[in-house]
Design goal:
Layout (H helix, E strand, L loop, with lengths): L5 E7 L5 E6 L2 H8 L8 H4 L5 E8 L2 H13 L5 H6 L4
Antiparallel strand pairs: 1-2, 1-3
Family: Belongs to the UPF0213 family.
Protein name: GIY-YIG nuclease family protein
Pfam families: GIY-YIG (PF01541)
């Protein structure tokens, strides 16, 4: 991953729910979601620990935000496949 690249990620929470987000630093973001660093989403705060399920690198923030919106609209059973698919 280059310094300017964005990643769309999917994490599985302790209650088996899924959370999708965008970041430029996956290690930092996972630490935030797991309470090891300040920050993180309110949604994951009460559903710790979380673990990374899938991610995809994008070349720009706008591309990452479009992909995130698409993942959030996709049925749960297909979210992993969408992030792992090479042709979007």
């Amino acid at each position: 991953m280059t310094p300017q690249s964005w990643q769309v990620y999917l994490v599985r929470c302790a209650d088996d729910s899924l959370y999708c987000g965008v970041t430029t630093d996956m290690e930092r973001r996972l630490a935030q979601h797991n309470g090891l660093r300040s920050g993180g989403a309110r949604y994951t705060r009460s559903r710790r620990p979380v673990r990374l399920e899938a991610s995809r690198t994008c070349t720009s923030l706008s591309e990452a935000l479009r992909l995130e919106a698409l993942v959030k609209r996709t049925p749960r059973a297909r979210k992993h496949l969408l992030l792992q698919s090479a042709d979007l």
